[in-house]
Amino acid sequence: MKPIRYTIIILASIILAWLLPSFYHLLSDSSGSNAFTYYSSVEEAFCSIDFDEQEERLIRYNVKTNQRYSEAEFDSILPFFYYRQLLSDGRLPDSINGRTITLKEVNSKTFFYRYNAKDKNTPSIPIYTLFESFSGRVRLEMPGDVFRLKNKIEFINPETNGVDKEKSERFMRAFETSDFQFPARAAYGNPSTRKPYDEGYFIIDNDGQIFHLKMVNGKAFLKNTNFPATINPVYISTQEPDDRSYYAFVFDDENNVYLMTSDNYRIETIPTPGFNRDKGRLMIMANPMYWNVNVLSSRGKECYALNADTKEVVDSLSLLTPEEYDFALANILPVELRFTSGNTDYIKPSVRFATWWVLLTNLILVAIFVFIGKRKNKPMQLFEIVWIGISGIFGFIPCLIFKE
Amino acid sequence: MEKALLYKEWKKTRLFTLGIAAVGIILLGYIMLKMGRSFRMVGMEHLWDVVVNRKQFLFRSLKYFPIAAALCLGMAQYFPEVIQKRIKLSLHLPLPERKVILLMYGYGLGILLGIYLLQLVGLLVFSTINFPYEFTSSTLKTIAPWYMAGIITYLFVAMVCLEPVWKRRAFNGLLGIAIVYLFFLSDVPSAYQPVLYILLVTLIAVFPFGFLSVQRFKEGTQD
């Protein structure tokens, strides 16, 4: 019966390694600073809205000069972010730093893009909806079928759950006449009718090449984007910007981010130092003059202002905070086991280890366990001693509860 | 002797067994009827869109059935053994005690797996007729943890009921609740895909726990 008892102790220790740190976080977690930061095209410096602990109110200021602004003044120095307010007040400028600005340009070149590691790390059913891209209608309409793509393309009619052989063969011919290499690794699109137009799917083939697939007048449009062979794409986030200037953001296996433009699929590199596609977030707030790129992680954010035309970094600001030291997590709880994470929809175990000082805590717990055993005249239990030495408090509790 | 023992288990649990089987079938029928209504009201294309692009899971009503069924069957089977310590009689039969417990386990798990299988076959047939195999595969990955949690619930009910000491019963129960909770951490379809093998290892590890309770009972461990 000893192996069964040992299994119970080990399983209970694992459960405690998951639950105890979770309860500890429930008691101890507090929110960090979450300042809004935007690069001012007027002042050519980062400006921020933050909560002032001393004054207990929101303050608006220029990060470089530390000059404070009223709400109305702040609208004026961030004209692209607050252009609706400025327009409503009749304060929208005609030009900024000598550059003429039109409302049409502001409307078409201003966008927000958010990437969360969860966007990529989420289970999905590999069934795709391909809209008619050239229907002549203002609104997109459901096409009446979906397709699957692995070793071939097959269109399925949802009403009958059967394959539409004629359409499948028609589209398959487009693949066969191209240099597409099956099996397809992944297909990325935006299967929503709530968008102004449709650009179909961007498909990564078995060679890592990106192909553009869409349906035009019922016919297959498949084109190799001639993506650089030196880059290995792992995720594509398709977009439908108003000015149709680009198709998608492409993420590679080295955490680089690229913009795939609609200019013959030309690639532009978006500088994102410190970005981790599996653990971090990315936010791009673009305007006609600058792109604000925020690389967010558990330690805060790094802000980059890019020239909107060249995508070169013109200014940067680091708002990273040092990893917080927590006495209990570093010295008492030997590991922190998690099954869920804000970076993925999958349930996956992840472990964070404490410092070596935790071994001292483990040793003290072993001594307490031996002392309790001696007081009760119990023989020395080698398994328990070794296990508490390894797992500390997580093993100590079940060894006391599930004793022989 | 074995047949008599199995008959005793049947006599004890037949009402619960039939009740659970009936609820399982009615629940599945209800889901199918509800979905059939959705097919007629919004059409299959919309339903497929909701499943694939909005990550809605159509069989969510089944979520707690496996653990509820296991809890009921386990209680029906083991609770009478605890009252007045009737398990003593079973353990004094001219059969090895391990065999007696294995027969009781085998009966309960057989019934439970039979009901689960009945439900799964119905679900698979329905899903295969109406949805592509990618959807059916995602469905199986989504519901697998729920059914594994059902089996673990049954094993913990046996462990808790057969344990002679109340304090240890409470700890066993808490451990069981925590382990079962591990199988319900996410509502996202197929979220457990990378760890299905870990859940299976946990299930195998939990399987013999009840034997420790029986051993402690036989040794006369008391409060």
Describe this entry's structure for a reader.
The complex is a heterodimer of chains A (404) and B (223). Chain A folds into three domains: 2-29 and 327-401, no CATH class; 41-109, no CATH class; 111-320, no CATH class. Chain A has helices spanning 2-28, 71-77, 83-89, 103-109, 117-120, 165-177, 327-331, 358-375, 382-391, 393-401, and strands at 36-40, 45-52, 57-62, 68-69, 95-96, 99-100, 111-116, 146-149, 153-157, 162-163, 186-188, 201-204, 210-216, 219-224, 233-238, 246-252, 257-261, 267-270, 281-286, 290-297, 300-307, 313-320, 335-338, 350-353. In chain A, the strands form seven sheets. Chain A has a five-stranded antiparallel β-sheet. Chain A is 26% helix and 30% strand. Chain B is mainly alpha-helical. Chain B has one domain. Chain B has helices at 2-42, 44-53, 65-82, 87-91, 97-130, 133-162, 166-181, 196-206, 209-218. The model of chain B has no long low-confidence stretch (mean pLDDT 91). Chain A binds chain B through residues 1, 4-5, 7-8, 11-12, 15, 18-19, 122-127, 129, 142, 144, 146, 148, 156, 158-159, 161, 191-192, 339-340, 345-349, 401-402, and chain B through 43-49, 51-53, 55, 129-132, 134-135, 138, 141, 168, 171, 175, 178-179, 182, 185-186, 188-195, 198, 202, 205-206, 208-209, 211-212, 215.
Quick synopsis:
The complex is a heterodimer of chains A (404) and B (223). Chain A is of the alpha+beta class and 404 residues long.
Oligomer: heterodimer
Q: Give the low-pLDDT segments of chain A.
A: none
Topology, number of strands of chain A: 24
Question: How much helicity do the residues of chain A have?
Answer: 25-40%
In round numbers, the mean pLDDT of chain A is 93
Compute the separation of the termini of chain A in Å: 10 Å
